[in-house]
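User: structure tokens for this one?
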Amino acid sequence: MTDPIADLLTRIKNAVHAGHDMLTCPRSNLKVEILKVLQSEGFIESFKEEQDTHQGTINIVPRYIEDALSRTAVLRGIKRVSKPSRRVYVKKEDIPRVRNGLGIAILTTASGVLTDKQARDKGIGGEVLCYVW
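Assistant:
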């Protein structure tokens, strides 16, 4: 697999659109940091790391809003920005706003994996991993 981050994002998107209660993906440190950001921003309910193999797996529980008649996913869309074939770096002045502030951009910086708002507050730029709304 050439892009494990895109694989994680695609698995989350597909599970949410299919209405699954849980999904599993291979573990990596960067994936765990991205999931921490998604959990703190309220896009996923929780995640749990399991050491069943050498690499381990992550069980992810997407977040849904339950009405009397239907169940709607909180996560509406997710898009990979920086890819192995084309890296996208931004300066602190050029950090993008996703959907006029309704979504978040996840960046990897020298201070770790941050949202666009946290990076703006710290005054640092980095590599834009994905947009989530």
